[in-house]
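During the second year of the project, the team shifted from modelling isolated chains to modelling whole assemblies. The rationale, set out in the original proposal, was that interfaces cannot be judged from single-chain predictions alone. As a representative example for this report, we include one of the complexes processed in the last quarter. Its constituent sequences, exactly as entered into the pipeline, are reproduced here:
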Amino acid sequence: MPALRVAIVVFPGTWSDRDCGYALGRLGVATRRVWHREAAPFARDELVVLPGGFSYGDYLRCGAVARFSPVMEAVRAHAGAGGLVIGICNGFQILCEAGLLPGVLMRNDSLQFRCQDVLLVAAQHDSPFTRGIARGRVLRMPISHGEGNYYADEATLDRLEDAGRVAFRYVAAGAGAGAGAGAGAGAATAEANPNGSLRNIAGIVNERGNVLGMMPHPERACEPLLGGEDGNAIWQSVLASVGVSA
Amino acid sequence: MTVDDRTLEQVAMSRDEYALLVARLDREPTEVELGMAGALWSEHCGYKHSRPLFHHFPTTGPYVLTKIGEENAGAIDLGDGWIAVFKMESHNHPSALEPYQGAATGVGGILRDIFAMGMRPVALLDSLRFGLLDDAHQRYLFRNVVAGIGGYGNCVGVPTVGGEVQFDRAYSGNPLVNAMCVGVGRREHLLSAAARGPGNPLLLVGADTGRDGIHGATFASVELDEGSGERRPAVQVGNPFLEKLLMEACVELAEQHRDWIEGLQDLGAAGLTSSAVESAHRAGTGIEIDVAKVPRRERGMTPYDVMLSESQERMLVIPKREHLDDVVALFRRWELHADVVGVVTDDGMATVRDGDAVVARVPVAVLAEAPQYPLQGRRPERLDRLHGENLGALPDLDAARANAALLELLGCENIASRRWIWRQYDHQVGNHTVVRPGGDAAVLALGGGTRRGIALATDGNGRLVWLDPRVGAQIAVAEAARNVVATGATPVALTDCLNFGNPEKPEVAYELEQAIIGLSEAARALGTPVVSGNASLYNETPQGAVLPTPAVGMLGVLEDVERHLTPALRAGDAVVLLGASPAQPAESLAGSEYLARAHGRVAGRPRLDLELEARVQRLVLEAHARALLAAAHDCSDGGLAVTLAECCLAGGTGFEAAAGLELGARLDAALFGEAQSRFLVGVCEPAALAALLALARDAAVPATLLGRAGGARLRLGPLDAALDAMREACEGGLERALAG
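Output from the structure prediction step:
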């Protein structure tokens, strides 16, 4: 059985790279770090992680400069060939800026940075990232961002919903059953939605389902000592989908 | 003498000091020399009024690796080869003028102090003081200071895990912004900020040098006045992105190539001048700098500008000659430029050239050894009056108003939940944070294969120090230690930031001296030496000085971080008060929040028995070591009722007082008095309760069984408050205050 290989991309200003390495290491997965200037192609079976941080300081617009990094050509090629890519927080912003995912992440509706736990449910179960997550299971993990307010035009949102490409939604405590059923799943209270994202969207996948972008930080919810380990469900789903048991 | 008053005023140097400089040099200084001396002889860099008192501090102990003053921060042995370095520093005056950038660059500066020692910063804390939030300007300052701290820390990727904030009118013109940073690493990676090895190059890394912040150290060392707004250019602008790259490069250098370099020093107050001179002084060497080689951000800068610029995000590296190229390449890989701007010499001189021209040549010792002034203190007259106030003559709290008084205190700006603040800070990045903000102290796991952890807290109640400088400062240390003990950690060392008014005024001098004595006494009694710190004097406006505020940052160690405590009570827990019983005289209201709110006065005489304090803290640690405790909380601001409410809210449970619990003759003192040296603990099993009470008896610590957690209401004497009402009061308090 082949081991999962993971490449963690490091832009200047990335800060979740070490946390991702830590979380995956706990699951027995070895990772390598790839500096943003490296343009060499990724291995076909590698999971590419774009971690959180403030790439290039994000002084212009989150992810707007990072998308021009040499490594992004390799990421684009990898995604185009069906390789797995996960963008977390700033990584999600970069994937949107690079056009690998639709929509944008705008300033939180509170106009403030937010670091807090949120509750999520997987809103689809046929991508490698979500296949292993039980239907209706509520996952607790932290967010930490100032710009996580997902926005896309109505037609795009409808298209995402119809194609089952909404990967994760913010839900209120107690939500769960039937969580894949659309905008009504999980009460869309202000408390549940930490940033004003349209239709409570916390994460989406591309058409092929091999590229995931999400604002919450699964790598931080990796052990009970740190407040929970629900984030492991996503890594474990990927491991299972490539035939590796964690 | 040829120098005019205006020039001296610019460098905040007195005529006498100028004369001293001339005498030490045996000639008149050049313009650059005068600027360098002015900066290094400022209070901010030279500690000329506070250093004569530092001999009071206990500085050694079994955990201390680097003593105060030896390096940029103190280093502590955590065991298993792990060490922590930590320090707290003020950025008060910049934050008064430009709150966002002032606070942000305060965070940037303290981070550099830590990674200059080769350690990876893992935690930031902030001790903040503002005027009351009923004033729009204070709300502006508060919002922007919080935003600035978050803006810098969040971007750089170091979690802000704790701290505290208090509001009092005395801080209206001069807010206090103290930032503390803790770094962790392996002992063998510890770096020194010494310019060793004559012939080794001086490498300047990071930002280009601009005109920003010239005279910043001087500005920090004078009182604020109406014209201070014109000093805004003395406030620097931070670039946390650049800092992140510097931090990664420096940590990599320490962790992987320790043998490539002799020293690493940050550029903070007084920029290149203090950085180069201090590192040479530390090593007993000299330095020669060519300002023409310093990369500039703007044209037309003079040697004076370059030497005194406080442009942020710069480090001075002293590589070994043979590894210069390796070090430069490492920084290049992190997309930083590194330029050789000078060389270490063996002549003990600080020489500055501009190309071929020598513009300054002064003995390092003359610059580094600022004149020192013994303080001329006079006991403030207010103390006798305040101590003599008969608090017993005040009308007691009407039992029918007890609920309302509790809810008002829970919601007031000095006690309400700080969630509004810390949810704007990334408090988790790095995957070390075990206990998040909101409890007594933050708890972090070291990771890296050890089970050890650290607990961190800041404290310092200015009101109590104002009422009694010596006892108030003792209490600041005791309470910071208590906060750490409440997590189950053993306090091992502290850092401090001494925020006072103008020390040239006799009453301020008295406060400063007494506070340092009190702080030292408590540090000694509790076994927590002072390993680093900073003095911020001249915190005054025409309206007067701030409350004398020594902020204390305490570090504690947990051998097994999984075994930590929080304030959260669980239904069924027996609740015990360790330390003085609930029945208290009116005198325990001294300096309390209740006295300030209900009676509009800050008065009385705070009391602390350091021997009892040490016994109580040891008792809690012993009880925890024996696994007797389920929860613990420091009983402080707002007294017993507020402490109990906080434990109930944290655990989502109510509380029922034991039948016949004696609250004494004064209801206000029992519920809201702030007698020191008390913990509220939860105990889960009858056997544990009996064992705890026996331990307390053996330790000569009073212990009172208060009652039992459970239900959805807090019932204590006449108090009968619903959990939901308490939660709403507490969690929404700051937002309501900010709504104006």
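Chain A is about 20% helix and 25% strand. The first strand of chain A starts at residue 5 and ends at 10.
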